[in-house]
Specification:
Layout lengths: L1 H8 L9 H5 L5 E6 L4 E6 L10 E7 L1 H22 L18 H9 L1
Antiparallel strand pairs: 1-2, 2-3
């Protein structure tokens, strides 16, 4: 109780990570959509030779949080590359998915 009061005094948040969430979920595809009020990021694991997959996790963000995430990812990729060298972006064959999404716009986003 004293620790909780001390954290609140300092403006800190106590974030808990349960065992199931700590295991993580592997994803090799992220599908991003947005509206005026939110960004939706669906994480998928596509396996070679398997014609079907499911969304494994969905994160919904405000536009402000999406922008903060973009900056945090860029900062972390830069630090990683400074320590380990450039991350090679190998050309991937097109993924023939039927998800009701304009895939050409997604491809353009990855090319820029």
């Amino acid at each position: 109780m004293a620790d909780q009061k001390e954290n609140q005094k300092q403006g800190q948040i106590n974030i808990e990570l349960d065992e199931k969430v700590a295991e993580g979920t592997y994803s090799n595809l992220a599908i991003i959509n947005h509206s005026v009020s939110e960004f939706v990021v669906d994480f998928v694991n596509i396996m070679p030779g398997v014609p079907k997959s499911k969304v494994k996790s969905r994160i919904i963000l405000t536009p402000q949080h999406a922008k903060r995430l973009l900056k945090a990812l860029a900062d972390n990729v830069n630090r990683f590359e400074n320590s380990h060298g450039e991350i090679k972006d190998y050309e991937q064959p097109p993924i023939p998915l039927n998800f009701g999404i304009n895939w050409s716009s997604i491809k353009k986003a990855f090319e820029s």
